[in-house]
Write a structure and sequence with these properties.
This protein is α/β, with parallel strands linked by helices. It has 8 helices and 5 strands; from the N terminus they run βαβααβααβααβα. Helix 1 links the parallel strand 1 and strand 2. The structure holds flavin mononucleotide (FMN). Flavin mononucleotide binds next to helix 2 and helix 4.
Length: 183
């Protein structure tokens, strides 16, 4: 909750061009009265308009762990959306690697039973790699809502042009329907 009692969504983006459309999720959540903070991996940051998102959300876009003694500039999350989630971050999350701020929040978030929705976004060949399929399956078993092929069919390698199909409305609906939600 933020200081006004509004629920808080962390919209977490990683290194895919689809990150550039996270404003769609920001608007959906804000339209339902949520406060939204965008958190980007260093790679994800390349694909977003940081200044525009900061103006839209009223919060800094964080990408780095904070140092001891520095203030926590974001309110604590009531839910998180990891969308788009790269293959890189999917694989690392599922084994507990936290070498970016998004991964640290996601690993900790599962342990804290924060409702989390994830949408892996790459291509069919990469997502089909057995350890990545296992990562998505494991995260689902640990309470994460992973939206897969039935919601977002992955493009073929080098097909391109898939960004407009990304299921932002389904991401937001899945956050609202997450069984761990308390607010
Ligand atoms: C132009 C461009 C597009 C990319 N698109 C994707 C993508 O859609 N999915 C993906 O898994 N990786 C994609 N990558 C690769 C990731 O950015 C790369 O694996 C990076 O290390 C991810 O780091 P992160 O998971 O910390 O964001 C792309 C890279 C570039 C340069």
């Amino acid at each position: 909750m933020n200081e006004h009692g509004a629920p808080v969504l962390y919209a977490i983006v990683t290194g895919s061009p689809i990150a550039g459309d996270v404003g769609t999720l920001v608007d959906l959540a804000r339209g339902d009265g949520w406060d939204v903070c965008v958190v980007a991996s260093p790679y994800g940051r390349r694909f977003i308009d940081v200044a525009a998102l900061e103006a839209r959300t009223g919060h800094p876009v964080r990408s780095e762990y904070k140092m001891p003694g520095t203030p926590d500039v974001l309110p604590p999350p009531d839910a998180m959306a990891a969308a788009p989630l790269t293959c890189n971050s999917l694989a690392k999350w599922a084994v507990g690697i936290s070498d970016t701020l998004p991964l640290g929040l996601l690993v900790e978030g599962v342990g804290m039973r924060v409702p989390i929705v994830a949408v892996p976004a790459s291509n069919r060949a990469q997502i089909g790699f057995p350890p990545l399929r296992a990562a998505a399956r494991n995260l689902g078993e640990w309470g994460v809502t992973v939206l897969g092929e039935e919601v977002y069919p992955q493009p073929e390698p080098r097909a391109g042009g898939h960004r407009h199909l990304f299921p932002w409305a389904e991401v937001w609906r899945a956050v609202l329907e997450h069984p761990w939600r308390t607010v």
